[in-house]
Amino acid sequence: MTTASNTVRTGTVLPVDAARTAMWTFVVANAVIVEVLFVSAGAGKNGVLTVAKFFGLHAALLLLFQLLLVARLPWLDRRIGMDRLTVWHRWVGFTLLWTVLTHATLVVLGYATLDDASMGKTFVALSGVPASLLGMLAAALIVVIAVISTRGLRRRLRYEVWHGLHLLLYVALGLAFVHQLQETTTFTSSAFATAYWWILWLFAFGALLTGRVVVPLWRNAHHRFTVAAVVPESDDVVSVYVTGRNLDKLPARAGQFCVWRFPGHNHWWLANPFSLSAAPGPQGLRLTAKAAGSASAGLRSLPVGTRAFVEGPYGAFTSLHRTRPGALLIAGGVGITPVRAMLEEEASGDVVVLYRVRGEADAVLLDEVRHLVALRGGRLHLLTGRTAEIGASPFAPESLHRLVPDVTGRDVYVCGPPAMTAAVLSALRDLRVPARQVHAERFGLA
Ligand SMILES: Cc1cc2nc3c(=O)[nH]c(=O)nc-3n(C[C@H](O)[C@H](O)[C@H](O)COP(=O)(O)OP(=O)(O)OC[C@H]3O[C@@H](n4cnc5c(N)ncnc54)[C@H](O)[C@@H]3O)c2cc1C
């Protein structure tokens, strides 16, 4: 497996800050252009319709921004991380919902006032106008997607069902585009407006197509990933070794994850994210999965030679974000996978590893972790026992400080179950570890 030297940044612009600045600049610049277009297009047929148009234009902008957030563009993903991007996507999604509902309500109210008719009658009349009908259908789909994405429903639905329904967003997008095109005032208020909206839509669709279709198809055609070995690590954990062509050209880093499909073994729509559990290199990739449901449990019976369709690598849980020479790597349970890979990649620098498990028998890849820590002259603390039995959480601020007294001077990487990760992040805040030194990977996307 390969090694890469530590990248320690001091005083320079952090990659995450560069990406955030680029995103904010994009959002603010486009918001300003849209305001200018709104003002220069003049008022609507009445005051209510003018405000409705304002919300409609911003709904279009939010919809296009949503596409960029999920486009999985490698440059953004490596700097911000898919977990954070999907959290933003979620919040922009709910903002979009309220913007669309306000736009639709104001359109109906505006025409009802204009025609001196009831809102019900106006709604029915507007649904007979093709441009309005398309807008209504897009709005209805956005409402459906928002409802299934509320935490309560989202938890009850199988991931694949929720994801399949969520893809209705693309239908909503197509309808919204034609609605905006037919509704004329925005696209045709000036030559600049026409050019601007066409460029923006093409850019957003182009980004989505590139990140979600072109890059994955090209990488899979180029690398031809194949299962080379399947090795049980314990009763419920298995490692899958994947080989391929030209893997030295795959831009993967330790700590990242891929979305894996094994079409000959599973249904093609089953795609699961698993971190690389060894540093990627020309000889291959490895994932290590704990059985959580049918897809992860089924990896145990994956035949050698099965073709794999691999999307990624994704994620910002890497040494690209190192700011200090010393690192503290904290893993809980199967959250050891990206940490194990990072240990291999990090050829230099002082490292401490905290590995939280119920008992030593549950510590997956423990021998490898011990070996790599010893190789680097680092320190490993295996933290066993239930919190109730050992009295206090090892991740309470005072316990963490006792274990790693110089924690504030280190980069801290944490990957584990949600409750453990939250406890560690809270302790790090209490200990005043600068936020730029804290990096977390969650085994769940928003
Ligand atoms: C970035 C990331 C890295 C991960 N790395 C590892 C790892 O190295 N080792 C490991 O054992 N587990 C890892 N996981 C968790 C792993 O993805 C899930 O346990 C697995 O997908 C469960 O699938 P299943 O069909 O077996 O179980 P299910 O019962 O279908 O799912 C169990 C849980 O996993 C979630 N899940 C299922 N499919 C997906 C998907 N495509 N995308 C996001 N969430 C999904 C479900 O919402 C549910 O909460 C990681 C998750 C993420 C998001």
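^ flavin-adenine dinucleotide complex. The first strand starts at residue 226 and ends at 232. Confidence is low (pLDDT under 50) at residues 1-6.
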